[in-house]
Amino acid sequence: MGYAVEMNFDAETDSRIRELWRRLADAGLNSAMLDNSANPHISLAVFDEVDLDLVRLAMADFAHRVTPISVRLAVVGTFPPGVKGDEGAVFLAPTVSAHLLSHHDRFHRMLYALSIRADDYYLPGNWVPHSTVALDAPPDKVAEIIALCRQSDVFHDAQLVDVSLVEFRPVRELYRYPFEE
Q1: What domains are defined for the chain?
Q2: Cα R_g (the chain), whole angstroms
Q3: Contact at 8 Å (CB) between 62 and 162?
Q4: Is residue 134 within 8 Å of residue 147, measured between CB atoms?
């Protein structure tokens, strides 16, 4: 099992991404996100093992200090094989802003203060903010998945409204904290 701290989208964006997941599944291209009971999100940090109580403290403090974060989903992409250990991963990415990066950096400084280190791919300077739409996609299906994503209505302004700690695969939410309004 692994663990992730995820920032979750507003209801409209969540619905649009879930609809994209359903379209991918209905087309026989990929159903991994639905099969894993995932929520549409952008991960802040991922861990193989971690002290869940300490992460929960950092999350609660972070959520108390953050208002909903505006992002614009603008890109569909894929990680090369072997990167992040995700074969056939296709994702949506927000336009990277100083605001988004500062929140990511703030959260990791809170983790560092608790002597917690996330997976290297999620550390400041390495992080590629993304919302996964397909996992373990066969190489011959990736182009079709990307094409279907490009035709969807997910590319718009969105809000990240809360933070959750999940155990995965399959996904099981352990804690969730709303960002201060």
Answers
A1: 2-176 (3.90.1140.10)
A2: 16
A3: no
A4: no
The string of pLDDT tens digits covering residues 127-172 is 999 999 999 999 999 999 999 999 999 999 999 999 999 999 899 9
Percentage helix, strand, coil for the chain under 3-state DSSP, each rounded to 5? 40, 30, 35
C-alpha 145/C-alpha 20 separation (Å) is 10
Say how many C-beta atoms besides its own lie within 10 A of residue 3's C-beta: 19
Distance of alpha carbon 105 from alpha carbon 125, whole angstroms:
9
pLDDT, one tens digit per residue, over 80-130 is 776 655 578 999 999 999 999 999 999 999 999 999 999 999 999 999 999
Please, are residues 176 and 162 in contact by the beta-carbon 8 Å criterion?
A: yes
The DSSP string of 117-148 is ---GGGSTTT----EEEESS--GGGHHHHHHH
Q: How many angstroms separate the CA atoms of 127 and 65, rounded?
A: 21
Q: Which residue from 89, 105, 1 is spatially nearest to 45, judged by alpha carbons? A: 105
Q: What is the pLDDT of residues 14-36, one digit of tens each?
A: 999 999 999 999 999 999 999 99
- Give the predicted TM-score (pTM) of the model: 0.94
Q: Among residues 159, 153, 154, which one has the least CA distance to residue 132?
A: 154
